[in-house]
Amino acid sequence: MDNGKQMTAIARPRLSVVLPNYNHAVHLPNWFKAVLEQSVQPFEIIVIDDASTDNSMEIIQDFARKNPSIRVYRNEKNQGVGYGVNRGLALAAGDYIYFSASDDEVLPGFFEKSLDVLARHPEAALSCTVSEWHDVPTGLRWHMAAGFAEKSSYFSPEQMVRMARQGKLFIVTQSSIMKREPLVAVGGFIPELKWHCDWFAAYVTGFRHGICYVPEVLSLVNIHPKSLYKAGHQKPEHEQVLRKLLDLLNSKECADVAPRIRESGVLSLFAMPMLRLLMSCAEYRRFLTPRLLLKTLRRVGELQAKRLMPTWLARWSVAIFYRARTP
């Protein structure tokens, strides 16, 4: 863990911010305001507009005229979020990259505190913070990744395994600033993994190089009914995506991190769809452990409870179990 010493002559690394956007004009002013009011400014802000049909480009170009750090690129046709983040990764010149969504928000101090701990621990693949998640339709709010540590810290891959086994590891990709080199080495955001491409990138690089953590709520994630977080898990090709994820973990390129992922039990995040694959396919059974089984059953219980509980009871439950702040 971090020894808590203050930064002296350590220079902060350069940060690139990448924003893929499609028809999110309504969210863009708040997004730019939150980023441009950060105490430490990014080296560059790369906006990839995915052929929006609303007035997104008008808003983006207005901010770009006033801020020379903003670079704007527009896809000739709609390519999807995965294409946008990978294009941004290829264009980025910073040492570290923050990939954002226009309907999410960064809170004051996010860049400064994340870059400070990364500067002290350049071996880390990323730094993440506590994040407040807001389910827009129900109004539920809860904190993700709370309780890792009491101060800004670095965790080695071995420490990450121990934390995961204790149920204390969750990398919030929406509040993660990622080191460019390890991310490129893992293949960036692999298109075939679709809505799980960020999970794969964060956990594989994390279990390879370790991660940093800032124990403060420094980002806000808004979950809408049509967001990838919800829609992805409901699509028919979900099993195909999980198979691709397991095939990659079984490949020689992941031979160094596969044992750590197995021992950690982090695949339990994918609940019953993942458990069914592990139990039915011999080539994946190396990842099936008693710990993963127990964690999966607990995960299934949590998901079912959220679906079946009345709203008032769900609010109380997340307040207890996720340290939520409810209105």
Please, could you describe this protein's structure?
The protein is an alpha/beta fold. The protein contains 13 helices and 10 strands. The chain is 42% helix and 18% strand. It has helices spanning 28-36, 56-66, 81-91, 110-120, 157-165, 180-185, 197-209, 228-234, 238-249, 258-264, 271-280, 290-308, 311-321; strands spanning 15-21, 44-49, 70-74, 96-99, 105-106, 126-135, 140-144, 153-155, 177-179, 211-223. The chain starts with 14 loop residues before the first strand and ends in a 6-residue tail after the last helix. Strands 1, 2, 3, 4, 5, 6, 7, 8, 9 and 10 form a 10-stranded mixed sheet that branches.
How much of the sequence is in beta strands? 15-25%
Could you tell me the radius of gyration in angstroms? Answer: 19 Å
**How does the helix and strand content classify structurally?**
alpha/beta
Mean pLDDT: 89
Shape: globular
The run of helices and strands is EHEHEHEEHEEEHEHHEHHHHHH
How many β-strand runs?
A: 10
Poorly predicted ranges: 2-8
Q: How many helices does DSSP assign?
A: 13
Main sheet properties: 10 strands, mixed
Please bin the fraction of helical residues. Answer: 40-55%
Query: How widely separated are the two ends?
Result: 35 Å
List keywords for this structure.
327 residues, 13 helices, alpha/beta, ten-stranded mixed beta sheet
